[in-house]
Amino acid sequence: MADFRARLDTLSPAARGHLAMLAFSMLVAGSFSMGGMVANDIAPVALNAVRFLMAALLVGLIGLASGTVRRGDRRAPWRYLILGALFATYFVTMFEGLKTAPPVSTAAMFTLTPVMSAGFGWLLLRQVTSRFMGVALAIGAAGAIWVIFRADMDALLAFQIGRGEAIFFWGVVAHAIYPVAVRGLNRGEHPIGMTFGMLVAGTLVLFLYGAGDLAATDWGGLPVMVWVVIGYTSVFAGAATFTLLPYAAMRLPSAKVMAYTYLVPSWVILWELALGNGAPRALVLAGVVLTIVSLVMLLKER
């Protein structure tokens, strides 16, 4: 461990940022593959209420220990309710969509986030996207759409999107609004402090909205894999990614941070193979290749 930290210290700040986002995209991808394994074993709202609570406790402890959660962060708590509701919508619709949609397909839907964020950034904050970046986003979106429609041209022309993908689409919209909302609502809070406020608010929203599902869940009779997924999504796909993202954002341009979203479907394919779920057919992989092309273009963006 000490040797790894010593090697990490020799890397440039930009290299450490890229390493953080590589880990971020891998951990996020795992939530799609692992979530797909238990999506039908527990109500999505109940699962996410517990994982939000666990993530809030973990981030809160980190924030208190590091001094990044401060008393003044409690100003205007309505801001955290907005952010918490957005993130809760994203995660609940993801698990709801995974009941019927393949993990690779939902991960491809997730890669629509950057192009949507660019649109919301212009609409709400008048942020302008360069022409080069616009082309890269368009290529990535094209690849994502090809995977979402499972390389079926007839389904694409008829716009026959699966039920799971249609549900998760609204979660992707919420996720795309989230970074724009964070920028607009931040009043000088540290990223960890704002994340803690969001998680606490999201926990409150989910416990109130999902009270019926929480009461109806047989917590003692849940399969062990459900608890594994709750733990994974709370610690690795939750608290860890919330830490990695602001870490990378302090060392890389936003375009490069955003670019790693396009690596998620490729990671999901590797997760699916590792979990013994097989790989998608070759034609679908063409769409994944396009998302990787978009990633390379965005990494080259100056």
What this model shows, in words?
The protein is an all-alpha fold and 302 residues long. The protein has one domain. It contains 15 helices and no strands. The chain has helices at residues 2-10, 13-38, 44-66, 78-97, 103-110, 113-125, 131-148, 153-157, 163-185, 191-209, 211-216, 224-249, 254-259, 264-274, 282-300. Helix 4 packs antiparallel against helix 9 (163-185), helix 4 (78-97) crosses helix 10 and helix 7 packs antiparallel against helix 15 (282-300). 50% of the residues are buried.
Number of helices: 15
Globular, elongated, flat, extended or rod-shaped: what is the shape? globular
Largest sheet: none
Q: How many angstroms separate the termini?
A: 34 Å
Strand content: under 5%
Output mean pLDDT. Answer: 81
Number of beta-strand segments? 0
The helicity comes to over 70%
Q: Compute the number of structural domains.
A: 1
Structural class: mainly alpha
Secondary-structure element series: HHHHHHHHHHHHHHH
Rg, Cα atoms, Å? 19 Å
Spans of at least 5 consecutive residues whose pLDDT stays below 50 are none
Task: Give short descriptive properties of this protein.
0% strand, 302 residues, 15 helices, mainly alpha
Short description:
This protein has 302 residues and is mainly alpha-helical. It is 77% helix and 0% strand.
SSE diagram, text form:
Elements: H1 2-10, H2 13-38, H3 44-66, H4 78-97, H5 103-110, H6 113-125, H7 131-148, H8 153-157, H9 163-185, H10 191-209, H11 211-216, H12 224-249, H13 254-259, H14 264-274, H15 282-300
Helix pairs in contact: 2-5, 2-12, 2-14, 3-4, 3-10, 3-12, 4-9, 4-10, 5-7, 5-9, 5-14, 6-9, 7-15
